[in-house]
Amino acid sequence: MKKKRRYKKKRVVFFAFFILLLGGGFIGMHFFHSMRKNVKEVKESKNEKFYQEEKTNVSLEKAPRNYQEFFDLDDGDYLTDKGYTLTIKDGIAYIDGYIIVNKTYALSNSYVPVNPHEKITGERCNSCINEDVMKAFLLMQSDATSLGLNIYISSGYRSYSYQDRLYHNYVSISGKEKADTYSARPGHSEHQTGTCFDLNTIDDSFANTDEGKWIHQHAYLYGFIIRYPKGKENMTGYQYESWHLRYVGKELATKLYNNGDWLTLEEYYGISSSYE
Ligand SMILES: [Zn+2]
User: Fold this and answer.
1) H helix runs in 148-189, sequence order
2) 196 CA to middle of ligand 1, Å?
3) What is residue 85's three-state secondary structure?
4) Less Cβ crowding at N or C end of the chain, within 10 Å?
């Protein structure tokens, strides 16, 4: 009798253990399953977010094809032909934080350079360009000097009203159509931004001087680009200017240098430069 009861007790213990094991297994499976579900849910929400971002980007309105279109646009984000986001803020266009000024994109008559090296008091001032741009120029100038080359800024910041007079003077000399190939209309000059300058003689002879040749090959190392390269008139809207340098920083300048076969900001970002 005693033996039988013990046997029965053993069976009960074994049964209880079995139930416990089963229960544990069940809970474990459930836990594992819910974990997997969580991971799946996170993955799905990530995909959804990615999809939304893609969709937002695609739904952006296209960047303007000319100044007429730019003039009518409100502040906001626009999509360039190369898929970059062009931001218009307070009527001024930027891509990747770089201010964009050409025949399509203009500045208001009150725009002045950000953080100028020297306080702006007049209509034109060579040392009133942006502080970072000036620092980069001085470094480039000092390296050029150590090689026996003489580079200097002949034209830096120019105000809207100064450009207005300059442009209309050229129009009276060459006519409007011709003047538009070498001089910017007021508001459309990069010189108003304080991010560029003209070097030395400001004419075609500069390209063949030792200084001009060195600038062509080395300006990018200091963050400068040849803004209007040879053979790119259709993109920039301007004749080749070996003397006009724009500061964009070393990273972008290196890309645009393109091993000496200079790319334009227009082709790199997929933007237009056209009045009409
Ligand atoms: Zn210039």
Assistant:
1) 160-174, 176-182
2) 7
3) strand
4) N
